[in-house]
Each structure stands twice: as C-alpha cells, then as structure tokens.
Amino acid sequence: MPHKPFKAVIPAAGLGTRFLPATKAMPKEMLPVVDKPAIQYVVEEAVDAGIQDILIIIGRNKNNIANHFDSVPELESTLERKGDHDRLAEVKHASDLADIHMVRQGEPLGLGHAVWRAKGHVDDHPLAVLLGDDLIDERDDLLKTMLAEYDKREATVVALMEVDPAQIHLYGVASVEPTDDPDVVRVTGMVEKPNAADAPSNLAVIGRYVLPPEVFEILERTKPGKGGEIQLTDALQELAHDPARGVYGVVFRGRRYDTGDKLDYIKAIVQLAADREDLGPELRPWFKEFAATL
Ligand code: G1P
C-alpha cells in the first residue's frame, strides 16, 4: 500500500551554547550563512526534495524563527515602493516556501525527545528529519536519494559520511554491511559518539534521516543514553536490530558544510560565498591575497 506523503521535521530547540554570546537572545538557527539564516537552507532542501509540510521543533528564544517564515507586509510594501524587486522576491520567497508549522520542545531532553515531540503533527506519515548544523549543497541530491531508498527498501534510511577518526567522537557511528549498491550500506548497529578506539567504522551519521512513523512508539520508551539525553541514535539501533524493519545508509560523497561550531561555521561561509556568482569573483582573488599574508 502506498504510504502517506513525507513530512519534514527540523529540530531547532538546542541552546546554541557554542555560539554564545551571539545566541544569548537569538537562536543559532537564525545565524546568517552568507545572507540567509542557516535554517532557511534546510527548509529549502526539504522543499527541493518535494516535501511541503515542514515542522520546526523550537525551544526558548526561538520566536524569530517563526517570524522569519511569516510575511512582513510593511517591509514588502517599502521594497515595492523603492522598486527593489530582487530583495522583495527574496523576502517573499522565505514566507512562500512551504507549509511551516512549529511545536515547542518544552524541555531540552535530547534529539530523540525533540523528534518525538513531532508525533502529534506527523501522525502516521513517514518523516524526514533534517538537522540544521549540517548544510548539504543544493547541487547534491542527498535527501531525494534517501526518500527513494526508503521507498525502494521499505526501511529507515540515514545519511552516512566518512569522517576523520579524530572527529568520530562527535557523531553517531554505524556498523555496516555492503549491499548490491556501492553507495548504500545496510546498518547493523549504531552507537552515539563513541571514542575513536570503540567506533565500529569511520561512517558517521550526518544530520539527515528518513524514518517510518513507528519511530515515535520506539522514542516514547527510549531511555536517556549518552550524556543523559534521549538519543535518536538509540531508537535507530532498535530499528536496525528489527529484522522486519532494518536501517540503510546512503553514503554521501558530496559537499557538506558543517555550521555546528565557530570554526566550521566560518569555513562554511567562505566556501559558500566563494562559489556564489555575485560574491565569488571578488572574494576569491581577495582570499588568495589574504592567504598569502598568513
Ligand atoms: C547529533 C546526533 C548524532 C549525529 C549528529 C550529526 O549530534 O546525536 O548522532 O551524528 O547530530 O550532526 P549533535 O551534533 O547534535 O551533538
């Protein structure tokens, strides 16, 4: 039987402590990456993959996320009066993007808990979870591929990427077996943020998941794990061990920008701006000159 349409869930309830003091009164998801808030890239990615219904899980100080996706008539009429059509189109684009809903997490009990809070809205639809710290280049079709694999294999799908062993302790890590497709592996187990010595592989879960609605029932009884938080990784581990369900990993070899900490955030902005038609031609030679002075 065909399943109901996918819904997207974007957890954005973290405290953003790594970006203090910038995030004291503003959510980290609203930090600009070049000229758009980080969360808009993620919403656009879901929309590009064909998902129209998007739920953002928010926490304290997150009201300006909602404001960003609302229309602002006075701003629009000012831009219209000035004849600034390009900016007007950009401003309207953010509010016309998709059908965006919000739910509050209430307490910051972990990523698994944040996703579980989507239950009332998502109900019996399959869901794509997108974490805002990982931006995927719009030229790479990761989420579309994952949705297709979910349909083909009738199983949970996560995005995996090879990472340096020195970084592995920052991620959920999968143990895997090959499939007939070199870009898809079967996940046999998952562990949240292991030490490099205990990591089952160098394949880290990057922040994209396509999940069956049954995940809510699993999350509901998932006990706090690593760091005392309810971990999505632990619920996935249960799905991976269930022979009737299973978890597959799409191995991503494309362009990913990590905006999770200050240094990676700066690198992401430089990389994205250098590639842009409006900024790249001036930025690239300046950057070369600047780099020569270092
Ligand atoms: C979360 C997940 C982790 C995953 C990572 C991807 O961790 O818990 O399994 O690998 O996102 O970015 P966080 O970065 O929120 O600590």
List the keywords:
294 residues; alpha/beta; 2 domains; 11 helices; binds 1-O-phosphono-alpha-D-glucopyranose
Q: Would you mind describing this structure in some detail?
A:
There is one protein chain. With 294 residues, the protein is of the alpha/beta class. It has eleven helices and 13 strands. It folds into two domains: 254 residues, Spore Coat Polysaccharide Biosynthesis Protein SpsA, Chain A, CATH 3.90.550; 34 residues, no CATH class. Strands 5-4-1-6-11-8-12-10-9 form a nine-stranded mixed beta sheet. A two-stranded antiparallel ribbon has the order 2-3. Strands 7-13 form a two-stranded antiparallel ribbon. Strand 9 and strand 10 form a beta hairpin. 39% of the residues are buried. The model has no long low-confidence stretch (mean pLDDT 94). The structure holds 1-O-phosphono-alpha-D-glucopyranose.
The residue fraction in helices comes out at 25-40%
SS-based structural class?
alpha/beta
Span of the ends, CA to CA? 60 Å
User: Radius of gyration over alpha carbons?
Assistant: 20 Å
Biggest sheet features: 9 strands, mixed
CATH class term of the largest domain: Alpha Beta
Tertiary shape: globular
Global mean pLDDT: 94
Give the arrangement of secondary structure elements.
Elements lengths: L6 E6 L19 E2 L2 E2 H11 L4 E6 L4 H6 L4 H10 L2 H12 L2 E6 L6 H6 L2 H4 L4 E4 L3 E3 L5 H12 L2 E7 L9 E7 L5 E9 L10 E9 L3 H6 L11 H10 L5 E5 L4 E3 L3 H14 L4 H13 L2
Parallel strand pairs: 1-4, 1-6, 4-5, 8-12
Antiparallel strand pairs: 2-3, 6-11, 7-13, 8-11, 9-10, 10-12
Helix pairs in contact: 3-4
The chain binds 1-O-phosphono-alpha-D-glucopyranose (G1P).
